Amino acid sequence: MTKKCLLSFCFLLSFCTSVFCVSYSEKSWRILEQAQVCFDSGNYGDAFKFAREAFVSRKNEAENEFNVLDKAISPAQVRRAGDEFSAVLKVLKEREQKEAVDIIEKYLKLYGSSYYKNSIHNMLDWLKERNVYPEADYLTGKIYQVEGEYAQALSFYERAYSEKDYLDVSDVQYEILYSIGFIAKINSDFEKFEKTLLLILNSDEFFKNELLKKSITKAISGDKKENVDRIFLLYRADSKYSLMALSELGDLYENRKESKKALECSALAAVESFTHILTAIEQRNSQFKYTSLEKFFEECKKYEEILVWAQKNDVWNVFYQLAKRAGANGNIIFAQAMYSVMADSVPDSYYRSLSASQLNSGF
């Protein structure tokens, strides 16, 4: 996992986090926002100070919310209403328990009633344990990482991941996992690196679909020129956080000489990249219909934002690795056809040249 790729992924998650958290009035979040500003400007001392202040503030907020809610639902009138949120909220509103109502509604908006199994007491138990602040721990880990203190960074990353049930934005857990993987790779702890990548991919229904993966690789193993276009005609897969993990896992398996696993990762990564871009193209040009990989690449060139996304996510390398690993598995005709398409039409000049070199060398 390159530092550039990690930073691109973190930027995306940080942007999403700021969008979802902007409605927060909690003091802890505002302190953490100060910490993030300091971190982004390279003021790591103040970033650390504010991150720890945010942690203490969140702990105090959680204790206060627990006490308010515990007191509000203790009277017999409220207890008789039962355990379901709708009934409890009705009584609390009648009793003008505004602070308790606001607390309940805030967390229902964030997590939904099903998260607490529609139980006020489950929410109360959850609040009792909410004396953690995984976002603050994660930022503290990033501070240690930029200072080169990888052991300390990993400790805070792992703590933040263990507290993932209390993240304000659940998807930040993937950013945390990528950071854990980054440290594992730096430390050459490839067993931990693999486990972390697999944790990320555990949420990818397409990665867990063995029949899908086998079908794609079977088409590659058929070793026919026309299968290059057919794969992208037949298969669709798009998972929000998988692409970097698939690419890294493919590299890991290639280094271990596990060529079939490496090809499997590359094939799924290529299909997921293709699906994501195709969706973006169709949103911009409803008349476009996929017919061949060459025409797909040509269409990509028309949209600057697609090219920027592809470059940030190393997408053209994903397609190149598919050709390379197909060749390594003995699927020479498929690999030649893939290289030929890329040499003629892939949007990136570097990968056009690299693909042409592979064709000329006979790889």
From TrEMBL:
SUPFAM superfamilies: HCP-like. The keyword Signal applies. Residues 1-21 form the signal peptide. It comes from the Bacteria. InterPro entries: TPR-like_helical_dom_sf (IPR011990), TPR_rpt (IPR019734). Coiled coil: none annotated. Keywords: Signal, TPR repeat. The keyword Signal applies. TPR repeats lie at residues 134-167. This is Tetratricopeptide repeat-containing protein. It comes from Treponema berlinense.
